[in-house]
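Bumping with the actual sequence this time:
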Amino acid sequence: WYDREFWTPARCSAETSVLELGSGTGEFMSYLKQKGVRRFQGVEQDKDAAAVVEPGLEPHVHVGDIWDYLDGYSADPFERIVMLDVLEHFSPGDGVRLLERINSVLSPGGLVVARVPNMGSPWGGIHQFADLTHQAAYTAKSLEQLGLAAGYEVVAFVSYRRGSPFRRVAEGALNWLLSKVLTVTPVVWTANIIVVWRRIK
């Protein structure tokens, strides 16, 4: 999944440095470790979540506030920054401010990868409204607007596909059928959408 939804669209290698904002229990960092990534860092404010990361990942986790981490960062910039199910917890204004602040820790030409509930899809509401802490809702178009407001351009939109091969095929067939009968169709049909932004200023 991460190969399809992150590694390939973000054009990564073991030499790529990665910062994950909102690293939770460390699942994505474990993936980076397995891929042989040498320099990666996670930021997580929930001490309980950070306490259960895979043994050996502890040095890669900064426990604390995202804003404080970004304000105090002074080391080499990262080539990729990842936010999985994080951006929707910020208001649209703070989302722009967060992307602008990320500029200070992102290398020139670096990429930002974010996953959010997809409100352009008929299936997105089940994720968007399942969490009362969500402060913003996004479609492909509004993600493009958010990025432009902060100095980024969209490189790619990626589907977030889960389930068995049969379910994925069935879902694709249903989406194809709906695209034939609806006057307006989403850029991405899946309930979550992944955007890849490139820093342009």
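The tokens above came from a reply further down the thread. The CA atoms of residues 21 and 114 lie 10 Å apart.
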